Amino acid sequence: LPGPPPPKLEPTSLVKLYGEFTGTSNRKGRCAVILTEKDLVVQRLTSAPVGRNKVVLSLKDCVGCRAYRGNDSADTAAYLVAYFYPLKRRWMSSRVSRQRVEQGFRLASLQDPQANLEEAEKWARAVRERSARQQFPRNGEWVLMSQMSRPCQMMLLVNPQSGKGQALTLYNNHIQRMLNEAGIKHTLVITERQNHAREMLKEADLSQWDALVIMSGDGLLYEVINGLLERPDWEEAIRTPLGILPGGSGNALAASIHHYSG
Ligand SMILES: Nc1ncnc2c1ncn2[C@@H]1O[C@H](COP(=O)(O)OP(=O)(O)OP(=O)(O)O)[C@@H](O)[C@H]1O
Where is the DAGKc domain (predicted)? Predict the structure, then answer.
């Protein structure tokens, strides 16, 4: 029998890396993986019509990519996994929202486990570098993802009472995983009482933090801003990048900020 048809390739000038791997769950299902300047293209190598077996993932939606060895030391394979959050329509809904897509591959073409891992790491680096080169509109200009100073150490404040406990559930079910996927280190602070965050930010050593992210309703952000403004060095302190993740019941402030900042 003839083998599967060769994958339809992108124009060669656009192809940055090409590899043939298997999936992580189905080791028999081979796929051709193509990295271009803009996308990661995954083409399943079967004899079925091409369209149905091709997935094109935009690197603009990629938050991270990593390589690793499996737990089984007898297995010489290495693994590559990339995390995307594309806008998608939910089932039975007319609205689009970002939904998580994980693409995992098993690289086992070489005998040497270290060589397989190096190949997987080469891919992971290439995906991360190309993702960082994607452009986004900001304040009427195009900026590179890598120019949006990506925080490397952030304090994430969560009010466990916000939105009847919703903020902490969102952190546990989504945010913690996303930050790990993106390789962003963070320290979690669960506020214990009213004015806890305000008092802490009034005294904190801000040189440790690249960003303060507040996961709550309006109340905790208000406390953080007041804590920063009550410091003797408030002019410098208030320049610390702040982020808000809506976790309260109303989230009016987060909605306004996101609306006006585009
Ligand atoms: N552990 C805690 N227990 C009780 N109150 C807390 C705790 N941590 C923070 N707070 C206080 O809870 C107040 C209300 O919080 P927040 O605005 O975040 O939530 P929300 O009222 O549910 O949201 P929204 O403003 O969207 O309605 C804040 O002013 C904060 O001081």
Answer: 149-262
Same fold, 12-143 and 149-260: no
ipTM of the complex: 0.93
Map out the domains of the chain as residue ranges.
Answer: 12-143, 149-260
CA dist., res. 168 & res. 77, Å (int):
37
Distance between Cα 91 and ligand 1 center (Å)? 33
Cβ(129)–Cβ(117) under 8 Å?
Answer: no
| pLDDT tens-digit readout, 46-79 | 776 666 688 999 999 999 999 999 888 888 999 9
Mutation to probe ligand 1, out of 162, 224, 251, 256 (largest number of atoms < 8 A from CB)? 162
Q: What is the pLDDT of residues 152-181, one digit of tens each?
A: 789 999 999 998 888 999 999 999 999 999
How do strand 153-158 and strand 211-216 relate by DSSP bridges?
Answer: parallel
- Residue 248 CB–ligand 1 contact under 6 Å: yes
> Identity (one letter) of the amino acid at 88?
K
Q: What is the CATH architecture of 12-143?
A: Roll (2.30)
CATH class, domain 149-260, is alpha beta
What backbone phi and psi angles, to 5 degrees, belong to 179? -65, -40
Long-range Cβ contact pairs of 170-176 (< 8 A, separation 24 or more): 170/215, 170/245, 170/247, 171/215, 171/247, 175/215, 175/245
The model's pTM is 0.82
Residues 225 and 216: their CA atoms lie apart, in Å, by 14
